[in-house]
Amino acid sequence: EIVLTQSPGTLSLSPGERATLSCRASQSVSSSYLAWYQQKPGQAPRLLIYGASSRATGIPDRFSGSGSGTDFTLTISRLEPEDFAVYYCQQYGSSPFTFGGGTKVEIK
Amino acid sequence: EVQLVQSGAEVKKPGESLRISCKGSGYSFTSYWISWVRQMPGKGLEWMGRIDPSDSYTNYSPSFQGHVTISADKSISTAYLQWSSLKASDTAMYYCAREGGWNSWFDPWGQGTLVTVSS
Questions:
Q1: Is A59 in the B-facing interface, judged by CB distances under 8 Å?
Q2: Which of A52, A76, B78, B110 could make an S-S bridge to A19, C-beta 3.0–4.6 Å?
Q3: pLDDT at A30
Q4: Is the CB of residue A37 less than 8 Å away from at least one CB of chain B?
């Protein structure tokens, strides 16, 4: 089973700042089969990024994903008020699919 | 619009059985796998398993194998997650999600079904 470790656990930033979230895998994620999701309180997760770097339909271009192998990054270039949420990475390259523990982006 | 609509919240006692549902609309239900994901209170996301609605082939996480059963009825575009004997530790929000294909990302997600197990 591929274990995904997200860091930091919590990121305290102000609107307009840049957010950099990390996701590290215990073994290589095949074909960059890595996704990022955003979850707000009381809501279902929403797909942001798939294939490590492709934005899902309707996702603003301030969200970008990068990385390969075992190290992946989600970057939010300029935080908007609606971006404060919890973010999860997920690998879907090998079963069992696994999620990281999440990074909470909170208002400083 | 592609949509997954889940059944409503449930309150059950330990030892009872339960089946919750996830109805797909706006797309060909048999063309996409459906996964189930657990989120315990205040915790992260855990993948439970998935089903190919075209032939009901299933694939479970070892953590959930034998504890739950995933099924589907393609005639009504609905997937199910069921328990034969609930425990208090099954208290959680359960989401269904559509996969884009074999080994694919999850999009969209259902709204979630809250299951509370308490004596």
A1: no
A2: A76
A3: 82
A4: yes
The pLDDT tens digits for A31-76 are 789 999 999 999 999 999 999 999 999 999 999 999 999 999 999 9
A4 with A73: CB under 8 angstroms?
A: no
Which residues in chain A touch residue B111, judged by CB atoms under 8 angstroms apart?
A: 44
Q: Give residue B61's pLDDT.
A: 97
The Cα of A15 is separated from the nearest Cα of chain B by a number of Å equal to 25
Which 3 state secondary structure label does DSSP give B91?
coil
The pLDDT, as a whole number, for residue B102 is 74
Which residues 6+ apart lie within 8 Å of B66 measured at CB?
A: none
Task: For residue B97, give how far its alpha carbon lies from the nearest alpha carbon of chain A (Å).
Answer: 10
Q: State yes or no: pLDDT of B93 exceeds 80.
A: yes
Q: Chain B within 8 Å of A90 (Cβ-Cβ)?
A: yes
Write out the E strands in chain A.
4-7, 10-13, 19-25, 34-39, 46-50, 54-55, 63-68, 71-76, 86-91, 98-99, 103-107
